[in-house]
Structure formats: C-alpha cells, structure tokens
Amino acid sequence: MSLFIASLNSGSNGNCYYIGNEREAVLVDAGISCRETEKRMAKLGLAMGNVKAIFVSHEHGDHIGGLPMLAKKYKLPVYISAATLRSSGMILLKDLVRDITTAPVSIGALRVTAFEKLHDAADPYSFIIEGNAVKIGVLTDMGKVCKQTIHYFRQCHAVFLESNYDEEMLEKGGYPQRLQQRIRGGKGHLSNFEALDLFVGHRAPYLSHLLLSHLSEHNNSPEVALDVFSVFADELTIAVASRYQESPVYHIQQNENLSANKNLVPFHTVQYELF
To answer: Is 128 part of any domain?
Structure first.
C-alpha cells in the first residue's frame, strides 16, 4: 500500500510536484517548462503516460509557466478555478479545463481534495492526494496556517511543506520593507519557524516524509532550514525540495506504527486564522 512522490522543482523559479501510484499520477502545478518536466521525469524513471491530470494551486508564474504547453501536448485535464484562470491570462483548450472543486476528485485510483489557503492570489488552493490508504499533502505558498491546513496536515503520511524564509535573513537582507511585509504579512509565505510550529504541533504519528519546499533563494538556505527541523526529526525523512533539480522519488507506505511522539507541543505559539 504505497504512493510515489517527487518534487520536479520547488522555488520562485518554478514549482511542480509528482504524486502517483504504479499506474496513474497527477502533477500539482507546472511551473517549469514542458521540456524540463519531461527531462526530469525521465531522469527519475517516471512515465509521462502515467500523468492523468494537472492541479493548479494559483496563477503565479512559477506555478503555471509550463502549463499550457504541457497540457496541450499530452491532452491533460487541468483542474483550475475560474478566478485563477481569469487572473492568469492563460489560453487553455476549453475541453481540457475542469473547474476546481473542494469535493474530492477521482483520478483513477487517486483522490484529490482541494482546500482554500491564505495567499496573495485570486483563488489559491492546497491539495491532499490520497491512494492506497496513503495521503500526501502539497502545502506551499501559504501566508499563514489556518484551521483547514491543520486539519489536513494531521492526516498526511508525507507532505511538501512550505518553509520559505528565515526571519533573521529576511530582516537583515536587502529586500525593501514593502516586500518584506508582503512575504510575512499573512498572505505571503511561511517562515521556517511557522512551518516548524505546524510540524511539531500537529504531525500524525505515521508521518514518514517531510519535504521542505519553496525555500527563498535569498532569505533561506537548505542548511538553515534543515538545521531548524532536524532536532525534531525522530524517525522521519526530512529533505529539501530543491529549486535547481528534481528530488529522488520517495516511496510512501502506509505505516501506523512510527514512534513519533504524539505529545509534542508547538515550538512557539502562532495564532491561527480560521476560515
């Protein structure tokens, strides 16, 4: 009972995440070129023929840059909200467009659930992909952790979790105050410690893989992010989803017996906005 996951790229230069079983898969976002998507999947031994749909989180260019070509070439249904499509300015073949819904969508033996998130986009969503009794979360581009995020995070066997910036690096870096405020203002991105608070306070005892995602090029580093999380790793695999290359393919199995401590408390207190 398992799913296979990989990050094809993660960062402001492009985002694309693969989740699938032995026969079918979905992509969440398509922010790298069609050619680069094909190249990276081939390197990982993942077949484009298994990809049955693309789910779009929001309209920012690093999430949709390769979408029109990829969808057209492989005739892939694109699950996207009407507001996201309007705001994107993309032209997609009408027969490929599927309006996104918060009700679970079946893609073969996979089930994809979309839920709203806090981000500075027209109509942004996070996703849970379920199959073979395993649940994978794609929880990136969030300005704040909300009730729905906690609810779904608690169910995950593996998760792509945003850990965008280090607070001190952002404060002391070269970004103007207006951009700093956009990043940390509640509809931008999560800091390392905000992501850590969610992880430590709400992870399932069977969570086995945490892929730190969408790291800032200038206000974070893999070393800094991993240092924050490593002390709480226990038996988990914690890795950074790179902005430069594809990750390994991770084999996520149903495992209810990991010894992660159910009684861990949040590293520090964050106020959660409720939908």
So the answer is: yes
